[in-house]
Amino acid sequence: VVGRQPRVAPGERFEYTSWAMLRTPFGTMRGSYDMERPDGSRFDARIAEFALTLPNALH
Questions:
Q1: pLDDT digits (tens, 9 = 90+) for 27-47
Q2: Which residues lie closer than 8 Å to 4 by C-beta, 6 or more apart?
Q3: Cα 30 to chain center, whole Å?
Q4: Contacts of 56 (CB under 8 A, 6+ apart)
Q5: How many angstroms separate the Cα of 53 from the Cα of each of 18, 31, 38, 57, 58?
Q6: What does the H/E/C string look like for 6-48?
Q7: Stated pTM of the model
């Protein structure tokens, strides 16, 4: 999350809104978050690929 470093305790959740400009009505996005545990160890939380579409663009 650009510019934010939220602390999320077990059982909590964090949500945010983002956007991306597309040159086509369809696209996909995927990635990962670099996470840090309370003990300082780090891991990547992978985000599965998901569709970016205009509302009502898919059946």
A1: 899 999 888 988 999 999 999
A2: 16
A3: 8
A4: none
A5: 14, 18, 37, 6, 8
A6: CCCCCCCCCCCCCCCCCCCCEEEEEEEEEEECCCCCEEEEEEE
A7: 0.60
CB 45 within 8 A of CB 37: no
Strand partners, 50: 29
**b/e sequence 20-50, b meaning 16+ C-beta within 10 Å:** eeeeeeeeeeeeeeeeeeeeeeeeeeeeeee
Q: Which segment of 9-13, 14-18, 32-36 scores lowest on mean pLDDT?
A: 14-18
Q: Do 35 and 18 meet the contact criterion of CB atoms below 8 Å apart?
A: no
β-pairing, 26-36 with 42-53?
A: antiparallel
Q: Report in angstroms the alpha-carbon separations of 24 from 19, 27, 58.
A: 14, 7, 13
